[in-house]
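Q: what sequence does this backbone want?
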């Protein structure tokens, strides 16, 4: 069994009393298949990119997650895609009396052996990209795990009136 969040088969309200939620991949063997974008080059040489993780908090706050090996570069196109996704949320206006969207992207690093699962919550966030004081940039994040970062991000958003 592979313990990775992919899809819940039960409503969130039914699982909130549990301390830990483990969601299993429906088809673990299929999850190990490489998804090839060969032949998918689009206009201006654009090719699809993947996003390693995504959280949607009630359609108003979003987190995009990208994993890279320690020392591996983030390709420019993938970095631009993450930045553009985050910026696009600011363009969404909330309904009357509601805030628009808040979003961030995080880059976390791992040095996990290929035959082992990457436990995301324990990996260290290297950088996060979001708008703070009217400035979008990649902020260096220090020695916080993904789990610690998400706790801080949720607090940051709640203090600004976003409903999680």
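A:
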């Amino acid at each position: 069994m592979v313990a990775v969040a992919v899809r819940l088969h039960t409503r969130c309200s039914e699982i909130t009393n549990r301390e830990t939620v483990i969601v299993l991949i429906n088809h673990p063997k299929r999850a190990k298949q490489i998804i090839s974008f060969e032949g998918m080059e689009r206009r201006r040489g654009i090719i699809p990119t993947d996003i390693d993780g995504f959280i949607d908090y009630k359609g108003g706050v979003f987190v995009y997650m990208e994993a890279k090996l320690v020392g591996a570069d983030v390709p420019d196109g993938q970095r631009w895609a993450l930045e553009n996704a985050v910026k696009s949320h600011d363009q969404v206006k909330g309904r009357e009396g509601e805030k628009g969207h808040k979003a961030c992207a995080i880059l976390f690093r791992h040095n996990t052996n290929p035959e082992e699962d990457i436990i995301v919550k324990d990996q260290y966030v290297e950088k996060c990209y979001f708008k703070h004081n009217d400035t979008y940039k990649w902020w260096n994040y220090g020695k916080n795990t993904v789990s610690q970062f998400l706790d801080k991000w949720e607090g940051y958003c709640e203090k600004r009136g976003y409903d999680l």
